[in-house]
Amino acid sequence: MQVVKNYLYNASYQVFILLVPLITTPYLARVLGPTGVGINAFTNSIIQYFILFGSIGVNLYGNRQVAFVRDDKERVTNTFYEVFLMRLMTIVLAYVAFLIFLVMTGKYHTYYLAQSISIIAAAFDVSWFFMGVENFGVTVIRNFIVKIITLISIFVFVKSYSDLTAYILILSLSLLIGNMTLFPNLKRYVGKLRFKKLNIWKHFRPSLVLFVPQIATQIYLVVNKTMLGAMTSVQSAGYFDQSDKMIKMVLALVTATGTVMLPHVANAFMKGQTEKTKEYLYGSFSFVTALATLMMFGMAAIAPKFVPLFFTDKFLSVIPLMMIESVVILLIAWSNAVGTQYLLPTNQNRAFTTSVVLGAIVNIIINVPFIIMWGAEGATLSTVISEFVVTGYQLYIIREQLNLKKLFKETDKYIIAGAMMFAVTIIANYILPEKWIMIVLEIIIGIVVYLLLLIIMKASILKKAKSILGR
C-alpha cells in the first residue's frame, strides 16, 4: 500500500502540474506570442545544459543510494552530505562556465541571466533525498504551494511581450525558493554534519555512470529546441516547445510510477528478492501500458480542435507536431518502466546508459536532415524515432532476464481499444462544433469507449485496479 500511496501523492501532483499550464499556457501564448515563447524555449534549452553538467547524475544516483542505506541513520546522514556537497561544488563550476558562455554569446544576455537563477536553484534541489526515503508527501506539498504562488505571479506581473524577462525570473526564482523550503524537513532523517567522516568524492565516479544517460536523455529533450532556434527560427522552437509541453504534461502521469518504484525496487533488490523485483515490473508495465495507450490516442485525436482553442490560430503549426509526438507517450512509458523501474534499481547501469546514448546519437544524426527538410515536424519525428531506439534496445537487453510474452500480455487489447477510441473521437471532432465544452465531451466519450472495450475484452488490469482500490 505504501507504493500505491506514493503513486497517488506523485500522480495527484502531476495532475496539478497538468492543470497549471492548462491555465498559464494559453494566456502566455496570447501575451508573449510565438516570438516570446520561442525565446524562452531557446534560452532555457541552453541553460539546461549547464544544469545538467552541474548536477552530474545526482537525482538518479542520490535517490538510489539513499534507498540502499535508508535503514541506517548514520549512513543516511553521511550519504546526504557527501552527495549534496559534491553537487554544490559541481554547480559552482557549471555557473562559472555559464558566465564564460555569456561573455562569448552575442544576444539574449538579459534573458540568459534571468534563466541562470535555475542553475543556482539546482544546487539546492534535495528532492532526490526524499524520493530515496520514499517520502513523496514533502515534495508534493512543497511543489503545490510553489506552483500556486508562481501561477498568481504570472498573472500579476506578465501582461505583454515586454514582460518576458519578468516571466523568466518568476519561473527561475520559484525553483530556487521551492528547493530551499525542503531543507527544514531534513532534520527528521539527517543528523549533524561531521566533515571528518565524509568522503565526498567517492560518489563522483558512480554518479558519472548515471550522468552519461542523463546527458543523452537531456540531449533529445532540449537539443531539438536548440537546433530549431539556431537552424530555422525561435518561432519554430516555440511551436515545438508548446507541443512538447502538452505531451510531457500528460506523460508525467505515466512516468510518476517510475519515480515511486525506483527506490522500492532498489530496496527489494538489495535484500535479494530477485523474483519480487520482476513481479513489480510485470504489474507496473501493464498499468503504464494501459494508461499510456489511452493518452497517446487521446492526445492525437483532440489535437486539431484543442490547439486553436488553447493556443490561438497563431499556433496552428502545433497541431501536426502534437499528433506525431503523441507516439512517444507509449514509448517513454515502456522505457521508463524497463529502465527506471528495473535496469537502474538492479544496477544494470551500463545497459541503461547504452540505450539512452544510442537514442541521443540517432537524434543528433537525423535531426539535421529532418529539420532542414521538414522544420519542426522533422524535429518531432526524430524524437519519436529516438525514443523507439531507446525502448527497443532496453527490451533487447532484458529478453533473457524477463518473460517478454508476460511483459506484453494484453498489450494488444490496449492498442485495439485505443485505436477504436481514436476513430470514435476523430469522428466526433468533425461532427461537434469547435468549443471547449465539446472537447471535454470528446474526452469523456473517448475514456468511456476505451474502458468499455477493455471490459468487453476482459482485460485483467481492471480487476487489479478494482482490488487495489478495494483495500
UniProtKB/TrEMBL annotation:
Q: Which Pfam families match?
A: Polysacc_synt (PF01943)
Q: Where in the cell is it found?
A: Cell membrane
The domain of life for this entry's organism is: Bacteria
Task: List all membrane-crossing ranges.
Answer: 7-29, 41-62, 83-104, 110-133, 140-158, 164-183, 204-223, 249-269, 281-303, 315-339, 351-372, 378-398, 414-431, 437-457
| Cell membrane recorded as keyword | yes
Keyword Iron applies: no
Signal peptide start and end residues: none
Q: Mainly localized where?
A: membrane
Gene Ontology cellular-component terms listed: plasma membrane
Look up and give the membrane topology term.
Multi-pass membrane protein
Question: Which UniProt keywords are present, listed alphabetically?
Answer: Cell membrane, Membrane, Transmembrane, Transmembrane helix
- What protein does this entry describe? Polysaccharide biosynthesis family protein
